[in-house]
Amino acid sequence: MPDASFYDFCQEVFLPGEGTVEDALAVCGELVTRHESLRTAFFRGADGSLVQRVERSGSFEAQICATGPGRSAQFVHDAWRRRMRDRTFDLRNGPPLRVLIVVTDHVPVLAAFCVSHLAADLMSMRTLAEEALTLLAARTARTAAPPPADTRQPVEQAAFERSPQGRALLARAHTHWRQHLASAPLTMFPGRPAPRGPGRPDRYSAAMDSSAAFLAVRALAGQWRVSTSAVLLTAVALLLGARSGQPVCALRLLAANRTHPALQHTVANLHQEVLTTLDLRADDVRTVARRAFAAGTLAYANGLFDPDAANELIGAEGRGRGEPLHLSCCFNDIRTDHDLRTLGETASAPDIRAALARTVVAPSDFEEAETFFLVVVDTDPGWLRFVLCAETDVLPPEEVHAFLRRLERLLVDCAEQPERPWPPLDREQRPAAVRPPRTAARG
Question: How many Cα atoms are found within 13 Å in the side-chain-facing hemisphere of 289?
Answer without folding.
Answer: 27
